[in-house]
């Protein structure tokens, strides 16, 4: 910030007065906004043993057995897919939420969107999907072919289950809330960051699957805000 | 005719029983056929599951050499798409029947490196989060059923291991198609089999060598109902559905994730019911005919025929012969009338009518109907004139009682006062229907013996008896018959029994008086005593013969 003021002084000595005034005004505005915005950082942590996915509600296949040579790999917790953190404040977002169908799954599978915004579903798989939310108006079972994107406007609040009529292993949870400022999904290590959050009081909520696992009040000032690590409760609890 | 009527009744009962049995058998057979079909379908469904499981195992084993192939391993590790696809194609061809319709190799992240049987995958497309592939990448092999790119596949996957580490996975997929349906049908012994995806039959097979095997449109017709079945939604098989009255079908979802997309299979079998009892002949096979107890049936047929012939002989042929023989006797002049008691009822009625007709003809021709008025003499018969030679057959002892019957005989009425009765010719037979009298014999002097009976007119069962005329001579008027007191009691007892017997036999007793009865008994008593002077007395016995009251007389030993 100090370097910015020095540069301003140097340039001012060389430019005409009018240009100097415009530049000074612009720089002042920049400085002012820089002072008020800040990031909110935090992390989540899951301590449970992660199991391989299974498909619920279907007839079990006939065979599943160890290869007989090498010990099976252990699955890791996919924070980016399983967890969603949202910041709810005075400035509602107007951004749409985009989820991707890739590798035969929905990423993220925990989706939070503000009512009235658009949910975009992009299919990057090599086969079609047919997502449906039974209780949500406008979210009917329509096939999304490979490479295409489907958009649905969220018209009501609530928590919903997203299902794939063609591939039952594709499953997600959609939370439609009334007001939303920012949405992030954690990285592979569970850390997340809301960038350029205007100063003010916010509510930080963390969702995992169908549940809201954490809610905390966060005050954003002129600097970055660090939030305590949130321990995720085991799935199903 | 009674036997034949009973026989016809037996035949009618047998016919109704046979028809009832056939109708009952039809219902039982139809019900058993349905139950058998349902049971067969349950076994078919179980066997189908076993065969699909074995099919999955076979595919898992068949892809093992491909997963272990060094070129495949190197191609996956190095993500060499072209080389890998070429190698996959070559090795897939070697699988023959188990050749994959879709063979996919993915790297350790689940990204598709190469796939055979389909256009090249989109760049970056993967399957790593699909449970089957995720498990294969983690070291497990397994199977599943997928709806993949609008097609339904049965899928198997196993890890690709190179240099001691997992480098990827191999995915083998075959369509649920008519080839599989036919293979399953052949192994199950011929049911119709189809695969459905939601409201469509995507593949099916109906055996052509099974008449009445349900067709694909019939399988489709009940699919909507089957999809609404709660048992199907729970992953169980449905109860058998009726297919237009000619087949039964059970529906079941497949094992694996595609079951959530309503992918399943249907097994159906045709059945045949008997619309009528006679339809059983259309369904009888050669072995059924061969198994019939032909000898017993033929013997039974012959036995029934013999019974019928026997009854015909007894009730038609034999009476006809007798009737004809009697008519022939009349025609030959050996008899003047029919021996009605020997005839059956119908012939007897004919004979009576004939007799009446003859009487009228005689009267019209100026003759005299000699039909006598029935009296006790007719009942007791004429007094025998010679017991020892009489066919009356008195044994002479009370213990050896004569079997001769003093029964109605066509006697002429007693002559007017002083006129002795004539000796009677032998009666033709006991005539209970007003039998005609034979021509009266010429009058004889007292003590003269009766002439022998006319040839052919004597009957063993109806023996004519000759009585001494003087024994039958009426007592002088006013003298009255002599009756000892003990005889009086016996005669009254006999009269009483005789009256009762006549009543029991349905005969009239209106013209029966004790005085007349007594007179006749005395005549017979006197005649017997005259012939058997050593006898102490005569005992009369009442009995019934051929439905008529009759008397027997026997001398008592002194």
Summed up, the helix count of chain A is 3
Using a beta-carbon cutoff below 8 angstroms, give the protein chain pair with the largest interface and the number of residues from each chain: A-B, 38 and 54 residues
Characterize the overall form of chain A: globular
Strand order of the largest sheet of chain A: 6-12-11-8-9
Strand order of the largest sheet of chain B: 2-1-5-4-3
Number of strands of chain B: 12
Beta-sheet strand percentage of chain A?
Answer: 35-45%
The value of Rg of chain A in angstroms is: 23 Å
pLDDT average of chain B, as an integer? Answer: 81
The biggest beta sheet of chain A reads: 5 strands, mixed
Number of helices of chain B: 16
Order of helices and strands of chain A: HHEEHEEEEEEEEEEEEEEEE
Largest sheet of chain B: 5 strands, antiparallel
Fraction in beta strands of chain B: 15-25%
Helical content of chain B stands at 40-55%
**pLDDT < 50 runs, ≥5 residues of chain A:** 1-5, 7-12, 28-34
Outline the low-pLDDT stretches of chain B. Answer: 386-479
Quick synopsis:
The complex is a heterodimer of chains A (237) and B (558). Chain A is built from 3 helices and 18 strands. With 237 residues, chain A is mainly β.
How would you explain this protein's 3D organization?
The complex is a heterodimer of chains A (about 240) and B (about 550). With about 240 residues, chain A is mainly beta. Chain A has helices spanning about 1-10, 15-35, 80, and strands at about 40-45, 65, 85-90, 95-100, 105, 110-115, 120-125, 130, 140-145, 150-155, 160-165, 170-175, 180-185, 190-195, 200-210, 210-220, 225, 230. Chain A has a 5-stranded mixed β-sheet with strand order 6-12-11-8-9, with no helix packed on it. In chain A, strands 1, 14, 17 and 18 form a 4-stranded mixed β-sheet that branches. In chain A, strands 13-3-15-16 form a 4-stranded antiparallel β-sheet. In chain A, strand 11 (about 160-165) and strand 12 form a beta hairpin. Chain A is globular. Residues about 1-5, about 5-10 and about 30-35 of chain A have low confidence and may be disordered. Chain B has about 550 residues and is of the alpha+beta class. In chain B, the strands form 3 sheets. In chain B, strands 2-1-5-4-3 form a 5-stranded antiparallel β-sheet. In chain B, strand 11 and strand 12 form a beta hairpin. The radius of gyration of chain B is 54 Å and the shape is rod-shaped. Strand 2 of chain A pairs antiparallel with strand 3 (about 140-150) of chain B, so a sheet runs across the interface.
